[in-house]
Amino acid sequence: MSYLVLARKWRPQTFHDVVGQQPVVRTLLNAIRRKRVAHAMLFSGVRGVGKTTLARIMAKAINCESDDPDVPCNACKSCQEITAGSSVDLKEIDGASNRGIQEIRELKENIRFFPTSSRFKIVIIDEVHMLTNEAFNALLKTLEEPPEHVYFMFATTEIHKVPITILSRCQRYELKRVGFDTLSTFFAKIATSEQVGVSPAALEMIVREADGSVRDGLSLLDQMFSFAEEDGAGVVEVKDEDVVQVLGLVDRQVFVTLARAALAGDLARCLEILEETYLLGVDLKRFSGDLLEFFRGLVVCKTSREPGRLMDVAAHDLDAMMELASGASKESLYQFFQIFMQGAEELRHASQPRLTLEMTFVRASQVGQVMPASELVQRLDKLIAASGGSVPVQHGQATPQKKTENIELTFRGSEQTGGRYRTELREPEQELSRPESPPPVAANTPPLPPGPVEDAGTQPESRGGGPRPDPVPAVAAEAKAGKVVVELRQRDVVRDWQSFIVYVKERKPWMAQTLRICDNPHLEGDKLLFRFDNPADCTLLSQRENLQALSTYAQDFFQTELCLEVCSIECETGEGDGASPREERRALAADPLVQMVTEIFDGKVVGIRTGPKFR
Q1: What are the strands of the beta sheet with 527-532, ordered from one edge?
Q2: Range with the largest mean pLDDT of 38-47, 319-328, 363-372, 514-523
Q3: What number of helices (H) and strands (E) belong to the chain?
Q4: Model-level pTM?
């Protein structure tokens, strides 16, 4: 007799033998006991989870001749005929070979006759989604109101391809993937029955490779039983290296070691592990997919309260992943996951998979620990609170710490003396006691109103050039009769130009939009110059009332007397040879070299600049 593979030898013959589908089994058993069996049933799910097996068991249970409520009995004539595949009242066809309307017509003709030896006729159509639309339409009326002696049972792996008109006439049963622990227990039972030893790690790799499919796992197990060697006592033993060699899989511990090295930024160790894996002949694309799945598990372990429900892994693997995830932030793990996902996508189309994977590890090693912005803000707040919100005094002198809420900021008018604004900081009940040396000023002091404030110790440079004030306002303090004088440098046209545009936008949005396209605004003495490339841009701004409003905004913002001048660059004369910018641009556009380049590349000149590069 020919060898019977494990997938057929261990096919369930009763409901109690079905692995991992307890909700469906319970529903079918209760339907039989309460005589509420639907005339049409549809079993759907991934490959190898028991769709056709449940349909056959249900066919035996419906026709079982035993009075025992626990059916099928597998002892009566009907059960034995269905088990042997010789029952004339059970018609099992596949939708791929009998997908046309003619086959459905013949089926409808045959089911009109009563069963010959059984109580009911059973029609099982496997992969029913392969039927054509015409075949489905021909089956509709019969499926909705079949003869009392006929039951229909369908099985499919792609339920979305079955028309809704068929689904609405069937009682649907969704079969799920079988869990990791359930498959492990079942395969260990088979190995013991077959008198073959399998190491726990090898069994885990086979179960993981089965991916929830009982039939796939049995096929792999059968293959490993044939490959394994006998020991000195004549016992077949499946080892870890046997599974790695035959199936091209990688031990889970490799991913743990690799992830630990990647999280630590140890690129050398990552490349060493990759080299060892490559020499074993492992498919790098498959390896990349498994690594991505491992990092997905790390993200789940970091973010989920019950990661075991979201991942189908062994208990010790889950503990190892929880340990790794606890030592990294979720932002870091998510960043690693994104990098390896991008690497897996690149690897799918790469002509050099190994180089692509190595560069992926190079990118991953540079990530480091990613710190969320909220944590950075909290650390900054703690540093400010620890320093009392003050800037330390030079020469290592300690500064008396005062809480911000106990200090009141008041403006004693706008006394302007020597280019300074005088502002007082005082406590509500008592004056501040300050040392003779200049103390610090609170870093969170509210901003002063704009004004012509100069550095007390330095004369302002010429408006047109020279060193400009520092971009950050300089703050100084002095204690005189319990008062603190705060000094701010004057606002600069170039440095604070964007702030001035925002200031104007709050008053006249269209004017601010026009100022955005202004060309290099600057001061020449007390004159603020606005130049535009196109004369049309400055026509509205040059009107009297608009120019007067702009002068008011500029003087209020920069706090100095300014004379505004708005003009177009094209109306001016350039330096040197006296040619205007318009003439220069025309000459450049007519240059033979420019015309030759535009002709070769079939392009056109869209803009010409004759000014400095920084413009």
Answers
A1: 519-524, 527-532, 563-568
A2: 38-47
A3: 24, 17
A4: 0.56
Structure tokens at 467: 């060193």
Max distance between CA atoms of the chain, in angstroms, equals 118
- In this structure, what CATH number is given to the domain that contains residue 210? 1.10.8.60
Q: Can you tell me the distance from the alpha carbon of 354 to that of 287, in angstroms, rounded to the nearest whole number?
A: 11
Domain contains 596: no
- The full DSSP string for 396-420 is G-------GGG-EEE--TT-EETTE
Alpha-carbon distances, residue 516 vs 94, 258, 519, 567 (angstroms):
72, 53, 9, 15
Give per-residue pLDDT as tens, 87-115.
Answer: 999 999 988 888 899 999 999 998 989 99
One domain for residues 217 and 75: no
Domain containing residue 217 = 180-247
Could you tell me how many residues make up the chain?
615
The answer to whether residues 556 and 510 belong to one domain is yes
What is the C-alpha to C-alpha distance for residues 468 and 308, in angstroms, rounded to an integer? Answer: 63
**346 contacts: CB under 8 Å, gap ≥ 6:** 356, 360
Which residues are CB-neighbours of 45 under 8 A, at least 6 positions away? 51, 157, 174, 175, 176, 177
Is residue 597 included in any domain, yes or no?
no
- Which amino acid is residue 82, in one-letter code? I
CB atoms within 10 A of CB 614: 5
pLDDT digits over 524-534, tens only? 777 888 777 77
Question: Do 187 and 168 lie in a common domain?
Answer: no
CATH number at residue 549: 3.30.300.180
Alpha carbons 192 and 45: distance in angstroms, whole number: 29
pLDDT 10s digits, 322-373: 998 888 888 888 888 999 999 989 988 888 889 999 999 998 888 766 666 6
pLDDT attached to residue 359: 92
Q: How far apart are CA 38 and CA 147, in angstroms?
A: 13
Query: Is residue 326 one of the residues assigned to a domain?
Result: yes
Q: What are phi and psi of 430, to 5 degrees?
A: -145, 155
The pLDDT tens digits for 143-179 are 989 999 999 999 999 999 999 999 999 999 999 999 8
DSSP per-residue letters across 313-353: --HHHHHHHHHHHHTS-HHHHHHHHHHHHHHHHHHHT-S-H
Q: Which residues does 306 contact at the CB level (< 8 Å), separation at least 6? A: none
Q: Please write the tens of the pLDDT for every residue from 536-570.
A: 767 777 788 888 888 888 888 887 777 877 776 55
d(CA 233, CA 251) in angstroms, rounded, equals 28
> Distance (Å, rounded) from C-alpha 30 to C-alpha 28?
5
